[in-house]
């Protein structure tokens, strides 16, 4: 399994000289299975450079697009994904069921009030909705994919991918503080023993009182989840758009200090656009 980050920012794109290290594009993560099958988690603005990369490869594009939820920052790149205008492109969309309707309404809400000049039914690509993950695990080429519901306004899904002896868990837009009661053990169980956990860490602990109910976590909460679940590596993502590279590095340092007190062998880093991970 190969994992590459194409977008790591949360809420809104944040381009500029102070976000060059971690990137300014919103959520998009590419996962290529050992079979060569390509999965993409979310279509944030990072989906646009991924589309350009795939188009330059010159081969027909076939991918599974797994949507965590239907908020704008996780869908904004879809109209600018160049292969979606090619007849030989096929996109199978799974994940959070309500996100499918939001995806189509980016192009056209059937009332003449679309947010893009091209209607959904004018796209050249074959786009098929196959909402299966919301109802149970799915197996693709020997890889088991399961989902968990998130603590986020309007809902959402996190995903766990298991291929051979390697497991990846991706959870963004999740308010772990709201799960400290009955649901926190559920998240621990879902992440149990995974090799790589990618988790939302948009806020600082001091910011939470003003942002409760907004559906995001702190680095402290993400580290505590990773330690409790016996995770191998934790990557913090969905960086706040107001955060500079220097500030994100400070958060990573604080997270590493906390991890050292909870689980000595827990590796912690922050997601950067272009970062590449390969399973053993």
Describe the structure.
- With 280 residues, the chain is an alpha/beta fold.
- The chain has a single domain (2-278), classed as Metallo-beta-lactamase, Chain A.
- Helix content is 22%, strand content 25%.
- The strands form two sheets. It has a seven-stranded mixed beta sheet with strand order 6-5-4-3-2-1-14. Strands 7-8-9-10-11-12-13 form a seven-stranded mixed beta sheet.
- Helix 5 (219-228) runs parallel beside helix 6.
Question: What's the shape?
Answer: globular
Distance between the termini: 8 Å
Work out the number of β strands: 14
Number of domains: 1
The main sheet comes to: 7 strands, mixed
Which percent band covers the strand fraction? Answer: 25-35%
- Quote the average pLDDT: 94
Brief synopsis:
The protein is of the alpha/beta class. The protein is built from 6 helices and 14 strands. It has one domain: 4-Layer Sandwich (Metallo-beta-lactamase, Chain A), CATH 3.60.15.
Structural features:
single chain; Metallo-beta-lactamase, Chain A; 280 residues; seven-stranded mixed sheet; 6 helices
């Amino acid at each position: 399994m190969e994992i590459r980050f194409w977008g790591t920012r949360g809420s809104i794109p944040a381009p500029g000289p102070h976000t060059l290290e971690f990137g300014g594009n919103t959520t998009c993560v590419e996962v290529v299975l050992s079979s060569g099958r390509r999965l993409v988690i979310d279509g944030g603005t990072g989906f646009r450079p991924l589309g350009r990369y795939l188009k330059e490869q010159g081969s027909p594009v076939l991918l599974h697009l797994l949507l965590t939820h239907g908020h704008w920052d996780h869908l904004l790149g879809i109209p600018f994904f160049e292969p979606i205008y090619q007849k030989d492109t096929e996109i199978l969309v799974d994940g959070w069921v309500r996100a499918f309707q939001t995806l189509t309404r980016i192009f056209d809400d059937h009332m003449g009030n679309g947010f893009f000049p091209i209607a959904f039914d004018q796209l050249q690509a074959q786009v098929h909705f196959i909402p299966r993950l919301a109802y149970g695990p799915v197996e693709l080429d020997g890889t088991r994919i399961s989902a968990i519901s998130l603590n986020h306004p309007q809902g959402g899904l996190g995903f766990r991918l298991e291929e051979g002896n390697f497991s990846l868990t991706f959870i963004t837009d999740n308010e772990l503080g709201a799960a400290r009661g009955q649901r926190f053990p559920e998240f621990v169980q879902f992440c149990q023993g995974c090799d790589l956990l990618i988790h939302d860490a948009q806020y600082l602990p001091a910011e939470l009182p003003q942002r409760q109910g907004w559906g995001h976590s702190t680095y402290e909460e993400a580290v505590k989840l990773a330690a409790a679940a016996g995770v191998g590596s934790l990557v913090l993502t969905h960086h706040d758009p107001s955060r500079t590279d220097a500030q994100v590095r400070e958060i990573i340092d604080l997270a590493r200090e906390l991890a050292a007190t909870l689980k000595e062998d827990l590796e912690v880093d922050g997601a950067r656009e272009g970062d590449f991970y390969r399973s053993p």
